[in-house]
Amino acid sequence: MKLERFKFGDIIENGWASKDNPTRIGIFVRHKKKTIEKTNGKGKFWETYHDSDNKNKKIGTIFDNPELLEGGE
């Protein structure tokens, strides 16, 4: 399975995280070896596993869909 390559500003949803997990949705910052770095846009950064069995998907971009982040931590 080919890994999806995200671009800076893409809004990414982690399909492994529960609906009430505050790090389920974040803004893509950069690719690392087996993870991707994301932010909430308010100073919090975290990494999400991104290898062949990931469930990360792009659901929009911060430039076109900023409302996708509303209500997040």
What would you note in describing this structure?
InterPro entries: YopX-like_C. This is YopX protein domain-containing protein. It comes from Paraliobacillus ryukyuensis. By secondary structure, this protein is mainly beta. The chain has one domain (10-69). 0% of the residues lie in helices and 38% in strands. It has no helices and five strands. It has strands at residues 10-14, 25-31, 35-39, 45-49, 56-61. It has a five-stranded antiparallel β-sheet, with no helix packed on it. β2 (25-31) and β3 (35-39) form a beta hairpin.
* Structural class by secondary-structure content: mainly beta
Low-confidence stretches are none
The total of helices stands at: 0
Strand order of the largest sheet: 4-3-2-1-5
What percent of residues are in strands? 35-45%
Name the helicity range: under 10%
Number of beta strands: 5
Termini separation: 32 Å
Organism: Paraliobacillus ryukyuensis
Protein name: YopX protein domain-containing protein
List keywords for this structure.
73 residues, mainly beta, 5-stranded antiparallel β-sheet, 0% helix
Strand and helix layout:
Blueprint: E1 10-14, E2 25-31, E3 35-39, E4 45-49, E5 56-61
Antiparallel strand pairs: 1-2, 1-5, 2-3, 3-4
Briefly say what this structure is:
The protein has 73 residues and is mainly β.
